[in-house]
Structures are given as structure tokens and as C-alpha cells.
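Data availability (excerpt). The following record was deposited with the supplementary files.
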Amino acid sequence: MSTEEHPAAAPRSLAEALRGRDDVSLAALLRSRPDLITPVPTDLTQLATRAGTRASVVRALERLDRFTLQTAQALAVAADPASYEELLGLLAGDEGDPVVAAALPHALGGLREQALVWGGDDRLRLVRTARELLAPSPQHPSPTGLGPTVREATAGMSPGRIQEIVATVGLPSTHDSVSAVTSLTALFADPARMSALLDEAPAESVEVLERLVWGPPYGQVTADPAPRLRWLLDRGLLLPTAPGTVVLPREVALRLRAGRAHRTPEPLPPPVEAAAAHRPRMVDATAAGQAYTALSTVEELLKDWHEGGPAVLRAGGLSVRDLKRTAVALDVTEPVAAFWVELAYAAGLLASDGEADERYAATPAYDEWRERPAAERWAQLVTAWLAATRTPGLVGGRDAKDRTLSALGPGLDRSAAPEVRHRVLTLLAGLPEGAAPAPESVLARLRWERPPRGGGRGLAGAGAGDGEDLRARIARWTLSEAEMLGITGRGALAAHGRALIGAPAARRAEAEPAGPGDKLPVRHRSAPAPAPPSSAEQATAAAAAAPLLAPLPPEPLDHVLLQADLTAVAPGPLERPLADMLGVLADVESKGGATVYRFTPGSVRRALDAGQTASDLHAFLTAHSRTPVPQPLAYLIDDVARRHGHLRVGAASAYVRCDDDAVLSEILADKRAAGLGLRRLAPTVLAAQAGPAGLLEGLRAMGFAPAAESAEGDVVIARTDAHRTPPRTPPAPVPEGPPVPDDTLLTAALRAVRAGDLASTAPREPAAGGDPGRGEPPRTTAAETLATVQAAVLTGEALWIGYVDAEGGASRRVIAPVRVEGGFVTAYDHTADEVRTYPLHRITGVAELADGES
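Predicted structure:
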């Protein structure tokens, strides 16, 4: 039955209110505030205490939507306790608001569910810590803009001054300050009497009140206030709080506001508006093209790092110079390059090699990833992106110690990122198919669902270093990153993007009515937005999205178009063997719908270094070109091949040998060879102080085409994909607080809490010679303990015992003894909900449960 039917049964504390809940309600509390279950509380009193701690309350307040938070803020400026009618008046005003009235039960229900408010509708109480955080004070103004009450503002005022104010407003004098303040408060709270008083006010005085009414309520005055201020001060409409400072009392402000605590209550979430509409098939095709580009970009990045990528900074991460080089290689901006690098890292395709000269390189998982179908490779990337807490958009910014945040470096984790990404995509799924949202409407919706920090005392500093717009920044990055990954096309969510987040259910939730008088989903008004799916759920959704994407990208081509200007045009994606070989033989000149490759002496030499011969290259081009091989290209290949390997470089420290001694003489005479430390050992051999790699690079810079050789004199074939890191696991996301407990954990926790509460609250009778206090474990002698336990085995009764474990921790338990032997008692422990064995010497005492409580 409700507390309204039985006022005497109204809870006197939060613990009693929790004790009156059923298991479903307690499970909802622990699910919405998982920090309360870590570790599992011993009983409901400890659960209530933990629910009132500052850290837990701050975390709960930060997860409220805007209207639910406004409801809590209104309770913080209301009387304690407050009635439902008083709370409704603070939110809807004297004139009432049907939309606010319809939304308030859901908001109040959410506060009750999260144990931030307790008590019946006639005695609503905000948890003390929440009231301290949300109540206005000079140091921490309330978002309501209200100031202190008359009683609080006059706390330090002299009795004589209070009596003067009472007399000036026409109230009868009293014998004490308390009754005078009470009568003054009643005057300010009475609409009719307050209106009569304001009708007498000069226009200038009314203007002063209008400037303070919506906050901040504090103002400055001189030692000799102007007449307009003196009129207000004499009647208590402004009260001094410190020398030179006055405040507008809360009761006066509420009368001037027509009873409203907030200037603009926001009971309904702002809608996500569509900025453009496209045909769904066009959206899917555009997104598929972007998805294929994403795969190609990741492959191009890791192909560029095959031989070992950039060095790892001493503090971890990628240097600014290396990020710029990567951006140039990918033909993108630096922030976009940082995104692709971080994405490959999050997917486990990229890591540091762990060597003494630590560098970044592809992992063995990259080779496995490349062999999978395109749709599955895409699913792996987007799954990693959705779950990653690393936030590439922060690269280039500063941390709390003013250090630059680098790609792949520390300090990029933001726990809110997975939730914001998933929520943004869910909001996009609520729009009609093919509709692209207006970004500002998405941000407005997110700000309503999770208002920026700073709405209450202690909340503003929780995100130091990020600012209160971190979630908005992540949301903006999500919109652009989803487009680059092919989850959206032209700003609209594609079909495979909808499947990725389980969009059908999301669309039903978003499509529910949201007008006045309609019943809103509880999630819109009181409960926080749903948490991101678990890794297993996300993997299942990605597996469902992959088949939708699979038929959309264009089929890979097995040919290119060779042109007379030493270029080749790939009119679409190429088959992997063709793309790999062409990537060695030519340089990418431009990318887009068609990729343009350019053949140069250096690129042809690269193919020859990889073990190809001139005839191999001619045959390859002939087989894969829809146009004849141009003569300039054939000449280029033959010319480079003719000179390739004419010089041989080996390790002596290094040497150069050539059958033509005139070529060696030419090298010695070249001033550019001075840094190589060359000297002639024989007519056909030069020795060098530089190593083989440096010698090769120096000779190539001089225009020669040397080839490396082994100690046996064979040409060394360079492999571009030789370097891999040891097996690496992807970086683990950094969770935002404790994880949401699953049903199994909730069931076990509730059983333990209920049993512990039974042990702590069950009435009990002292055993012979014992008189345990209600809050302390019982104390009995060893003989009395043994006799009572043995008797309970025969009668089957339950006992209340005090027990000290091996670490010295004392606890109270309710047990049903089964047998006693060898100095041990075996019993069913109601506290732990299992059969346990206890040494008798660790039982401090026993007490029988009162009749009817077993």
C-alpha cells in the first residue's frame, strides 16, 4: 500500500525507503548506479549510506537528463520535505503548464528510482548530499538563479533591524526575531499581499528587482544607497549579506517569477531535425564507397609502414613530424591521418614492435585481416571504433600539464566516447531513411539528455581539462568519422549503419509520441540514455551489418589503362595481387573515383630490387592493361633494367664493385661522394666507410642504380613486407566508472543484501547471561554458545550470531544450524544464502531471533 494511505508507515530515512522496495526496484537502482554494488553492500543501511556519498551522488546527477535535473534543482530550493503540489508549482508556475505536469511524474520517478529522492508525495525529500550540491550559495550559484531564503539571509541581522523592516511593510511587531522573520516570509509568499506591496514601489525600484529576479540574485550597493535601493532595503525586498552586497530573497524572487524556479523548463527533448533528404539507395551507395575507401586507406597506411614505421617517442606516441609525413603519404590532413592511425591501433592492426629501437609496424593480425572479405574487414574496423575510448580528435591539443597530446600516445582515452558515438548513431536512426540531420539539433538533443557539467556545486570540476563541451566535441567528431568509415552516406545513416547499431528498435523508441498529453518513453524524461551494447552484442550487430554492405562496393578490377605519359589509370578498386604489384612498380599520383599511378625510374628500380626482371614487368603490364603498353614505358623499364645491378654493394664495412672501372672513377671524382668515404681497393672495387644501406642511398642520390649483394655475391632481393610486430592485443577501452552489472550479479547481490539486512534488523532475544545491543554482535560464553547452537540443531530454529573471520573482521549473521561436531558448526547461512561451516571459537556469541522473525 502507498504511504498516502498509511501516513504512519512513511519512511523515516533513505534506508527505510529502500527497505520498502521490491527486488525489481532495487535491481533498477543498482543497474542505474553500478558504483553502489562495488563492492556488494552488507545490508540496505550500508547501501543507503553509499548512495548518499558525494562521489556517488555527483555521478548520478551527471547522468540525469535536463528536465530531471531541473526537478532535482527545484527540490533543492523547496522546503524540506516538500509536497508534490509544491514541486509542481516550482516547475510549472502559478499559471500551470500541462506539458510540465505530464512530464513531472516520469522525472520524479527517475529520481526515486536512483535513490536521489525518497518519501511519499506528501513528504518528498532530496538526498542530503544532492541538496548540498544543488542548493544555491554565494560561492556556488544555482542554475535556478535563486538566492537564500529570508530566514537564511537574515541569520546575522540584528533583531532591531528586523523589527524595522517588519514595521515598514505594515506587519505588527513581534517579541522575537524568529516570529518576525516568519511573518515576513509569509508576506512575501502571499501573492495578493506581495502584489499590493509592489504596487507601491517606485518604477526605478521595480527595475532593480527585474534585473535580479532571474539571477544572479546578488548586487552591490554603496554605503549611502540611492533612494530606489533604500526603498527596497527598508522593506526587506533586498537584504544585506555582507558590507556592500545585497541579495534578493528567494521568496521575493519566486513571487516575481510567478512561482517558477526555472526561467525555461524543458520537459521535452528537442527533436533531431533533418537538414537534407536523399534517396536511400544513393545513401547506401555513397556509404559503401566510403567504406571501401576506408579499407584502402588503412591498407595504404600499413603498407607504408611494412619495413618498420616511425619511431616511438620516449613518452610514447607519434612525433608531429611523422604524423605530417603520414598525412602526406595518405594525401589527407593531419587530423584525418591521426584518425586512421588510431583506428588501425584500436583494431589491433598496428602496434609498437617492442625492440630496443622501438618503431611502429603492422601486427600479425593485419595479415589475417587482409585476407578476409571486404565487408568483414569493415565490420572489424567499425566495431573497434564504436568501442574505443581513445579519441583521435584530441590529437594536437594539450593535457592538464600543458603537454601536447600525440597520436598513439597516452592521454587520449575519454570514457564517454563509446556512449556518445552510439547515441549519435541511434539519433540518426530515428530519422526517416535517407535523411541527414542538422548537426546542431543533434548536439542540442545530447545536451538535453546529458546537460554539460557545472549544473551544481562540485559538478563543474569533474572534467577538468576537457571543458564542459567535451561530449559535444565527441559528437561532432562522430558525425565526420562515421562518414569517413562509410556508416553514413551524405550525412544520412546507411542500411548497414542501421544494422550496426540495431536501428529498428532505436527507431521505434524515437518514433513514440512526444507532444503535450502524449505518454513519453521513460527514457526521454527520467532515465539516462541506454548504455552502449556489450562487446558480444556489438560483434553480433556487426556480423548482421556485414552482409548488407557486401553487395554494395564495386567488384575489384583485374586491369588498368596504361597511358603514353607514363601513368596508369585504375578506373575502380583493383584485385589485391594487381594492386600490390602495381603499388611496387609505380607511385600513386592521385586518388578518388579512379586512382592514377605514375611510373618513374625510382619506382621501376623498386620493382627490380624486389626480384622482378624486365621481362617479368613487360609480361605483367601486357596481361593487365586494356590498352597497349606505351613505348615510353617499355623504354623506361628496359633502360632502368640495363643499368640495374651494374654496381654491386656489399658489406666490408661496405664496398662497391663494378666490371667497368671507368664508372668507379666517375664516382670517385664526384664531389657528392665525399661523405661516403670511398677509396679504391682494386680497379673494379671501392671500399666505403658508410654502411651498405647508406652507400646504396648515396649512390642512388647520385643517379646510379646499384644493387645490394650478399656475402656470396648474389643480388639481395628487398622485401617491403618483412617487418611485423610480435602478436599484440588491441588497446582495452577505459570504462566510465564500474560496469553495469549483469542479471546474474544483480540476483546474487540482492540476495546477499537482503540476507545481510535480515541479520542486521531482525529482532533478537539475548541468550542466557547475554544482553547484546541492537547494533553490536552478541556476546556469550563458549559454553552458552555451544548449548544454544546444539539446541537449535534439534529444534531447527535460526540464530543470530556474531562472527570474527581470520582477518579479524566482525560481522553479524543469521544461521540455521544443521550439525555440531569437532569444534565446528555446519549451518545454512541466510546472509550468504549458502551452507557454511564455522569454527565455534570464532563465534563471539549467539542470540535467538524473536518470535515470528525466523
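Summary of structural features: The longest strand covers residues 810-821.
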